[in-house]
Amino acid sequence: METINLINTFAEFKELKNIDRATMVSVLEDVFRNMLVKTYGSDENFDIIINTESGDFEIWRNRLVMEDGDVLDENTQISLSDARKIDPTYEVGEEVATEVKFSDFGRRSVLAIRQNLASRITDLEKANLFQKYTERVGEIITGEVYQVWKREMLVLDDEDNELLLPKSEQIPSDFFRKGDTVRAIVSKVEMINNSPKIILSRTAPEFLERLFELEVPEIFDGLITIKKIVRIPGERAKVAVESYDERIDPVGACVGVKGSRIYGIVKELRNENIDVVNYTSNPSLMIQRALNPAKVLSIDINEETKTAEVHLKPSEISLAIGKGGLNIRLASMLTGYDIDVYRETGEEDEEDVDLTEFTDEIEPWIIDQFRKIGLDTAKRVLAQNPDDLAQRTDLETETIQEVLRILRSEFE
Question: What residues does the S1 motif domain cover (predicted)?
């Protein structure tokens, strides 16, 4: 048959970036065998030869020579007279191999072959892409921002595969334009309507963990283990680390000389504050470390309810709670305990009144809202800005104003 280079003919469907040559040849053969079955009823007596180097192919039909008049199946049998038109030396019982011309399939069949091949290759590329990124879940990838929409961003990898970075998986202060380079982890891979959907994330704790592995060789080598990471993306994070080698200071190694190692991570995370603490299995000590930089006086732990009452000096309360309650919130997430802070009162606080004394005027659940953020006395609440109280609690502004009115009346 006329020489046709299939690799070139179907190059518009295939750039050989996700499918290896052997798979490509297998697909080509399968597509042509399907066409042979439709055209001749069977493909069992056909040989398809594809040159894996050049992409050239040939199709040969094998038929058995029969006496004239004894041919029952023209696909698998040929009369002696017809066989001798090909070669006068053929005898009954011999096998005749004839080449099938590409033009024998007809224009419609050729078009169907092209469409079928295009569909098969597309499906293969989708399956390979799905498999490739399924194996890369949790890995950092670097891509180029191609399109920015309101709810998500389209990112292209180094092979121009399309990846999605949803707004919900971006750090609040992230801002990207088309052409920018972005780093994120592969969060999940889904197959939707037979197409792979690859979701990236910059807010997942695993992203911070991978960044530490890149910046801290001891973590990458397994000398330091990250026990747990908790984050409020773009705001603050706490990382518990442990080393089995007493010669290695895990916190110092992660931070680096003058913060050299952690600086790059903080910059990547849009100046997210990162607290690195030594992990311990002692819950009391772990809570104390998690509340750093606050200095804890004492801790009462209830293992059944997984709660901890932390007592601090009045001057340490704000440090333990942190801006917007971030420090105590992350400490609770890191340790697994619901932490309540209490101030140790001295003589200077004798005139203050505990909030529990106001249960006849203020509902207990409202008092609990203030206690959760470390405000357990009337004067402590009155010293706060009402707008700040509204942000740190789940209370309405009107409720807070009424509470402040009740507490002020106590001292008037």
Answer: 138-203
